[in-house]
Amino acid sequence: MNILLTGGAGYIGSHTAVELINEGHEVIVVDNYSNSSPEIISRIGKVAGRLAAYDADAGDEEKMRQVFLKHKIDAVVHFAGYKAVAESVQQPLKYYENNLSSLIATLKTMKAFGVDTIIFSSSATVYGTSQTAPFDEGMGTGCTNPYGWTKLMCEQVLRDVAKAETGFTAVILRYFNPVGAHESGLLGEDPKGIPNNLMPYIQQVASGKLGKLSIFGNDYDTKDGTGIRDYIHVVDLAKGHVKALQYAQEHRGMEVFNLGTGKGYSVLEVVRAFERANGVEIPYQITARRKGDVAESYADVSKAQVVLGWKAGKTLEDMCRDAWNWQKQNPEGYKNSGRMQRQAKGL
Q: Which of 54, 147, 265, 298 is catalytic?
């Protein structure tokens, strides 16, 4: 099949592109590189093989139309959107405008060209702070930040479209905490500035770019007082998209799945695992809790296991080892991005 990945040069999108190509699909990427790099397209090609890529914004209906004219698209995996929680609190209008408009423009273009299948990149953020782990797909939802609300609003848009249009299929994937990198070391997470997420922060402390890790709170009601989260290897997550696409070929309507491991690890457990896997020491300091953080967040993944036939296979040590391998090979991230600009076609 010909699969369009909006935001396909991002962290999760690039790994999903690799898995889709490995499964024999033709991949087309649309990305404006606001939070990625054109070099990623070249690296996907080195890891998995040829793909088409366009330097375009998924919210630009005319450019999306041109992509659909060039390729007979069979399904869309929608990754495009801003994703930093803290930034969304500071700039809510930026997030609501971009994240909603990119999905709506994509859906309008799909409808115009008769494409009726979409896999949507959502987040466990939609469960809010009032639920008790493990989180399952039938639980109530609610958010504490604009980023989370954009995901929940996009889910509602897809739910309404699926009700209104016979034959339309939307599979919503709620991610927990993606970490790690491709085992080749060519693809990984490249945050801009000081990382917001635990694993890339640990990586940069290990490399000496940052002095020490800040752990936000050690007085939670958990095994060691630090917050517990469900960390999933990005390659396992990418394979979940392949399974979701297979499911979508045989089912109509909208369905929601958690993608996680179903097991929670504390911040200190992740630090210790990273140290064991890589033989490096991670200095840290305990600081105040962050507003809105919950003690425990991990997934009930039974639905994805039963319905999709998908299960995460990589261990926490795998995640730590591959993350450090990426960091060592790419201390400055995708630093040669300007040289690789020609890899992405303009429209």
A: 147
Residue at token pair 């499911």:
247
Angle value at C-alpha 135, between 132 and 137, nearest 5 degrees: 135
For 60, list phi and psi in degrees, rounded to 5. Answer: -90, 100
- The predicted model scores a pTM of 0.94
8 Å CB contact between 155 and 172: yes
Domain ranges of the chain: 2-333
From start to end of 136-217, where are the E strands?
A: 169-175, 177-179, 213-216
Q: In this predicted structure, what is the pLDDT of residue 347?
A: 64
147 is catalytic: yes
Q: What architecture is domain 2-333?
A: 3-Layer(aba) Sandwich (3.40)
Relative to beta strand 52-55, strand 253-259 is unpaired
Taking only the tens place, the pLDDT of each residue in 126-153 is 998 888 999 999 999 999 899 999 999 9
pLDDT tens readout for residues 242-278: 999 999 999 999 999 999 999 999 999 999 999 999 9
Among 115, 207, 93, 127, which Cα is nearest to 169's?
A: 115
